[in-house]
Amino acid sequence: MPAPPAAPASGPGGLSVRDRALLALERRSWAGPGAKERAIREELGIAPVRYYQLLNALIDDERALREDPVTVNRLRRVRDARRGRR
């Protein structure tokens, strides 16, 4: 199986442009159902399933925590709560 394509160039905090875009999209609030999924497709050019895969890996990255601690900690709490219900 070939390796996945590399993420775009890193910024000053070590996060790629794509990683920063994921965090920025996650910080926003959404008006109604489907709005976030539409934004993921239009702004990032990826499927929502891939977005959530990338986001889940990103919130375990300490560079992301340094970049946006409020968003990353919120996402970690949500993920942990979901895992606890399973």
Index terms:
single chain; 86 residues; mainly alpha; 64% helix; globular; disordered N terminus
Structure description:
There is one protein chain. By secondary structure, the protein is mostly helical. Helix 1 packs antiparallel against helix 2. It is globular and about 30 Å long.
Summarize the structure.
Helix 1 runs antiparallel to helix 2 (35-44). This protein has five helices and no strands.
The low-confidence parts are 1-7
Alpha-carbon distance between the termini?
A: 31 Å
Arithmetic mean of pLDDT: 87
What letter string, H or E per element, gives the SSE order? HHHHH
- Biggest β-sheet description: none
- Total helix count? 5
Percentage of residues in strands: under 5%
Write down how many β-strands occur, each being a DSSP E stretch of 2 or more residues. Answer: 0
Cα Rg: 13 Å
Helix content: 55-70%
Write the layout of secondary structure elements.
Layout: H1 17-27, H2 35-44, H3 48-58, H4 62-67, H5 69-85
Helix pairs in contact: 1-2
